[in-house]
Every structure is written in structure tokens, then in C-alpha cells.
Model the fold of this input.
Amino acid sequence: MELTSTWYLVLAAILFALGATGLLVRRNPLIMFMCVELMLNAVNLTFVTFGNDLNDLGGELSVFFVLVVAAAEVVIGLAIIVAIMRRRNEATADDLSVLRG
Amino acid sequence: MELVVFLIAGALAIIGALGLILFRHPVHSALSLVLSLFAVAVLFVNQDAQFLAAVQVIVYAGAIVVLFLFVIMLLGVDKAENLSVEPIAGQRLIAVGIGIAILALSVFFIFSVSGNAATGQESVTAEKVDSITGTTTSATEALGDDQVDGTEDAPNIDQLGRSLFTDYVFAFEVTALLLTIAVVGAVLLARKPKGELAPLPTIPDRNAGPVPELDALETLGDT
Amino acid sequence: MNPATVNLATMQLVELVWLVPLFPLLGFITLMLIGRRLGEPVAGWVATAAMGGSFAAAVMVFVGMVGLDGESGERIVQVKLFDWVVAGDFSVDIGLLADPLSVTMILFITGVATLIHLYSIGYMHGDANFSKFFVYLNLFAFAMLMLVLGDNLLLTFLGWEGVGACSYFLISFWFTDEANASAGKKAFVTNRVGDFGFMLATFLAFFAYGSIEYGEMFSGAPIAQSTATAIALLLFVGAAGKSAQFPLYLWLPDAMAGPTPVSALIHAATMVTSGVYLLSRINPILAAAHDWAPSLIAWVGLFTALFAATIAIAQDDIKKVLAYSTVSQLGFMVVAVGTGAYVAALFHMITHAFFKALMFLGSGSVIHGMNDDQNMKRYGGLAKLMPITAGTFIVGWLAIAGVPPFSGFWSKDEILVSIYANGDIFANKVLFVLLLIAAILTAFYMTRLVALTFFGAPRWRDEVTGEAFIESDEELPLRHPHESPWTMTFPLVALAGAALVAGGLNLPFTKDLHFLEHWLEPSFFFEGKDNIFHDLPSGGTKWIVAIIATLGALMGIAAAWKLYFDKGGGTGPESPPILAQGWGYDNAVTSFMGGPGEKSFDAMAEFDATVVDGTVNGVGKLIQIDGGILRKLQNGLVRSYAALIGIGAVGVMIYFLVVGA
Done:
């Protein structure tokens, strides 16, 4: 059995699906955020796989940029969560439904 | 050899992901995430992206997850979540459904293309050279090795850097700007507010009926 | 002056036809603004002067038109004033059509109206709303003139509605008495039924002809016979409403609740003739319709004439007799129109205007002198005390009875001869006989009226001396009959003169004396040729019919005189109650309207409120409900929004799966 890029892609798909499911199921905002990170990782894996397949450095460069942006996003996201959750410990994502119509 | 590595790393990645979504305690979830990230880094190495693997470990596992743990510690959001209750009706069903659907569709797409799933053209500019064996797996060998400026056996990081600072320098600068903005934003958000804090938006108790201050909104649509 | 400039001058005179409705309009506006301040009698004189000016303008237009050549169509002059409605294909302007027919109408309308305005000054003396009366009268005159002069169906309809509204105002002028107000409402509502037919006809005409202007309608391409029949009959419905034909005549007897000048002007001379005018105006459409349409019109007219005549002989109220008489005479005119004898119809319209207005004014004079008592049973012997009134009334009486050489004889005779000779109309000989019977009845009831009112022994007591003239068991009322002032008697004399000589308009002896017929020819045409029934029979038949008609009239007069002229103060035989109540028709309509009619109207209103409104509101409610359901999607929870995003993403993937990239 030869290791082709297909395996990597399937693995990335599995990770992505798991991350999506976790995002929808969990209520703790931090865990939801971590699921987003998992999804991003799956995408990174896909990029690298394709880059390897095509001998294109663009794949790795894309991962590079995704990483940078993910880092920035995590910073801001956590800052927001801190700002909201600072005064309440048991808050979950379901409690911020002020925008209901 | 690569296959074995792949299987082990793949299994670990999946285990980590499952742990992330199934553990009740957020610290447990964070540690599972770290496991998953490590496995992915191994997979990067398996694919000749060593620099990326290193960055992954340092930035992702080393910085981001630590940041998560800091917040967990700071806010005391360490209470175990009550996973047996799902307040939103049908959410679990939708979630599982979506997960399965994404997986199924992706796999289908992957396998619908006979043989190689990569449909793009092989690049002629950012050609990647296997840094250990010094050979390329490219079909454009005929174009010559001069493409990479005479550094056929250059390590991965060299190639990356060269490409980054020549072809993608603009994107690079923009990301620098992005990071700066992120820092400024984070500082602003984390400041202690001066004066009285504004009252919190009331948390609606799902079982207690409509929230008083939202009554006006509710009656708007009912007439 | 060379002929070209003369022609130009006369053409210009005709084009000043817009002056004719302008004067009453100015009068109306002036009196509306400062009438109350002008007070009595200045307001009345202002109104009369306005009508007089209008009459002078009408005469001027007539003189101008005489100078134009009738044969070459010069006498049809359209004066466009300004654009009125411009909406895509549909454009209507305020334009006046001056042709022989309308000029004839405006002449006698303005003439009679001026006289009646003068009369009203005396009649309404002392009334609290003196100036308001003249405001309405002038407005009415304006509307009537617009009706007659309009060059398109819409402008005619404007005048049509205007006269209907003014009729309502004037009938219920003394509205503090509820009976008067109801009479006004009845008139308005009944007219409305006819107006509905008019409107439908207008829509149909626009649909068929592409235009509702008379000139364009009549000169355009011919239309399907059924369409023409539909238009003609719908317009006849409208005419039946205005000209009080069966079954829409109900309002006219009730309309006698208004002041007598109103009855004279509106319900004798002008408004009620507008139906006949309309039918004459659309004669090309009538000619294009199926043959049974004019027959139907003629028979409806006959039925009305006979029906109303039988009722008139049983009425005790002097004005009601005259009202039913008007209905009957209008029936005569409608019969003539249905027979195609438009000239006879218009001739009778003119003579009828004169003698009926005369008789109404005369009756007003009598009522005035008898303390507003209108019951003929309490009249009697007034001839000596009101000589001018009596004398002029007798002229009118003889005219309507059809005694030569008064004008009524000539016009009625013309109608009878036309019917007898026109084989196209269904069962025309039967029609002739029945109409003759109606004519005899006319003579009968008018003679009854005159005998009871002016002759015989007085059935009242003299107010001054208190003495009674006859033996009677019951208390006789005190009265002081007196002749009316000159403002009231002058119009009577003028109208009597007209009733006497108007026959000269269209004498049947030789073709040369057919002034009216020649004059009206340009207005009656169909498919390039005349639409007037020229085919009068030879001399012999004409004379026989004339003699029969005269004998019938004299018979009627003699019979009535014998029955009702009583020096002893009797009032003749009791009239059968069924006739007095109008064959029960009025009661039937009232009970229907009050009973099943009202129920069906209520049901209609219910239907509108629940079904129509319900549908409209239901649509709104449906949207509200939908909104309520969709609102639940917006629960503000991030996770459900995320779920929706996920569903969308899966959807996109499936799309690419199915459709392909």
C-alpha cells in the first residue's frame, strides 16, 4: 500500500469534520475557539499536502500566512472573551443572545 | 516507513481531536489540542515541510494553546460543562449531521478525481526541492535547476524565505501590519475600564419565560 | 360686405357658444359668495340677469348658425376649450359642440329658465333662504347647458350628474320637513340607477370606438351590431332614469315636494328632457343597433305614457296630476324617439316645455293664493278671482289636450302620424291605437284639473267675509285667493304666448313649413344619410289621423267636463284607489326595498366587509404569521447561527456535487 496524498487529504477532512461538529456542540466559548483552531489545522494540512503534490512552495507559504492570521485572531478573540467573561464565570455561548429578534 | 509514521501520527491527531470535543474540562480539551497539533507537525515533516512543522509547534502549540490556558486560568472558566443537556433543540442532530455531511462530501470529492486529487498545475516558479535527497519530483525537470537560483539542495527554510521575500513580500508586509493591529486591539480590549461599569446584559434564564426588558421587542411582532 | 367676411363673422358668433354656460356659472359663483349679503330681491335679479344673458348669447349663437350653410355640414361646430383628461389612449377635453340639436336645446332651455327665474323672485318672496335658491337654480342651469353642449360622453355625464345633484338640492330645499328630504334622496338614488347604465355605456363606447367624443364616435368605423345595441340600451337605462320612464319614474311624483318653480324648470322643461336629448344625440348608434332595440324603447315609452295617464286621472293634488302628466308626455317623446321620429320628439319636447312649465307656474300661482293648499278638492271657482292665471292656464290646458291650433296639437299629431306610418316598429298600428288612448286620457285628466280648480262652485269660504258658497257638512277652509304680482304673471303670459304659436315651428302642410325638420337634419345622420323619419304618409292619411286625434281630444274634454264641472260644488265621482296609488307600484318598491331589498343590501355589505376586506386583511395577517414563524430563527444564539452556516456550507458543497464546478 503506497502512501499517496489522498490519505493526507482524507485525514484532513476527518479533522475538519470533527472540528466543525465540536464547534456546534460545545458551549464553552474557549473550547469552541479551540475547535476553530483544529479546523484551521486541518486546512493547513491540506495546503501542505497539495503543495507537496504539485511541488509548489505556495502551499507552504499559504500555511505560513494562515498561521499568522490565526495567531492574530486568537489574540483578539481571547481579548474579547476576557472582556465579556471577566465578571461572570459560568457564562456560556448561549447566554449572549441579546441580539435575538 | 513514511506510511508507518503517517498512520501513527494520523491516529494521534484523531485521538486528540476527539478528546478536544469530548472532554468536559477545558484544560483537558486544551491538552488534547496540543496532542493533535503535535501530530500534525509530524505529518508536516513527513511532507518535507520542516520549517512549517517547527513553526507549528512553536507558535501554535507553544504560544496559542498556552494563551488559551492562561485565559482559562485567569477567568476561572474551569468548571466542567454540563454536556448532558443541550438547550437548543436539534442542535446535536444538526451538528452530527453537518459533520458527517462534510466528511462524506469531502471524501467523495477526493476520490472522484481518479488518481491524483491535486488538479492544479505544477508551479514553475516556486519549485520545491526535496532538501534531503536533493531531487525534485517535478515533471518540469527539463526546465532546469537554475530556477531555484542554483541552490538545488537548499534546505526548506531557504526556499521558503527566498520565495517569501521576493514573490510574496507584499503579503508579508501586510501580515506585519495585521499583527500590529492585533496587538493594539488586544491592548485596548484588555484595559481596565475607567469609572462605573455598564450594567451587564441580563442573562435570560431559558426556563423562566421572557426577559422583562425584552418584552417590548417581543410584543412588536405579536399584534 | 363680401360673403367671406360675413361667413367669418357668423362663424365667430357660433364659436362664442361658451358664453352660454358661462353666465349661469358666473351667477352661481357670485351668488354663492355674496348672495346672502345681496339679499332679497337683488339676488333674484342677479340670477335672472345671468340667465337672461345666457339666453341672449344663445340667440346670438342661433343667429350665427343660421348664417352658416346647413347642407355642407358647416353647422356642426366644435369649440374646444381646453384639455381635461389625458391618460394614455384616453383623452377627453372640455369642448362644446354647437350643432342644430344643441342650439335648439339651449334656446328653449335658457328662455324658459329666464322666465322661471323671474317667476321665482315673486314666488320665493319671504323665504329665509331666498338667495340659496337662486344659487342652486343657476348651478342647475349651468349643469344643464353643459349636458346639452358637451361634445363627448364624459362632459355630458358631468352635466347629467350636475343636474341630478341640483335636482336633489332643490327638491329638498325645505329639508326641515322630513318628507321633502326623503323625496330628494329618492330622486337622487333613482337617478343613480340610471347613471349606472350611462357609465357602463361610456365604458363600452370607449372600448368599441376608442373614443367617447361624439364626432369621433359617429365618423369612425362601424362597430358590431350587438355592441351598438348594448350601448344604446344602456344609455336608454340612463335616459329612463332621468326622463322618468317605467320603472324609474318613481321619483318624479315625489319630487313635487320641492318649490313649484323647481317643478316647472327641472321636472317639466329641462332635466327630464335630457334623457330624450341623449337618445337623440346618439341616433347613429341607435340606427346601428338591432331592429328590436328602438322597438323596445318605443314600447317602454308607450307603457309609461299609458300607465302614468291612468294614474293622473285619480290624483287630488294639483301638482301630482301635473307630475304624472309629465311622465306621460315624456313617454310620448320616448315613443317618438323609438320610432325614429326624432323631429317629432324634439318638437313635442319644445312645446311641452312651454305648456307644462306654464301650467306648473300657474299651479304655483294658485297654490300661493290658496295658502299653500294643494288639494284640488278644496279649490273651485278661481277663474274670476285669478284671471290672468286662469287664462294662461287654459291656454296650456288646450295645448296639452291637443286642440288645434295650439302648439300641443301639432307636436302630438306629428308623433301619432309618425307611428302610424312607420312599419319598422313592432306592431306599430297597435302602438298607434294605444298612444291615441293615452292622448285621450291626457285630455280627460287635464280637463278634470281645470274644471275642479278654476270652475264650478268654490269649495272654500271667503276669508274676509267668512261666507260659504255651497252647502257642506264639513268645515270649509278660509281662503283669500288673489292674483299674483307681475313678476309671476309676466312669465305666465310669455309662456302662454309661446304655447300658442310654437306650433308654427313644424307645420305639416307643406315641406317648406317643416322648419324644425330642416333645421335639425345635420344632427341626425347614419351611414352618410339622414336618420330622420321623412317618410310621412300622403295627405289623406295625415288628415284622417289629425281628425281622429282632435275628435279624441274633444271626447276626453267633454267626458271630463261632464263629470267634474259642478255648479253645486260637487267634486265628481271618487277616483278608484288603485289608480290613486299608482297601481301599487310605489308601495311594492318600498316594501321590497325595506324588506328583501334591504336584506340583500345588508348581505352585500357583509360580503364586502368579510370577504373583500377579509382577503385584504388576510394577506397582511398571513405575512404577519410568516414573520412570526421566521422570527424564531433569530434566537440570538451564536451556536444556532453557526449551525445555519454549516448547513449553508454543506449546501454549497452539494451544489458543486450536483451541478459541477
Observations:
- The first strand of chain C starts at residue 77 and ends at 87.
- Chain C is about 70% helix and 5% strand.
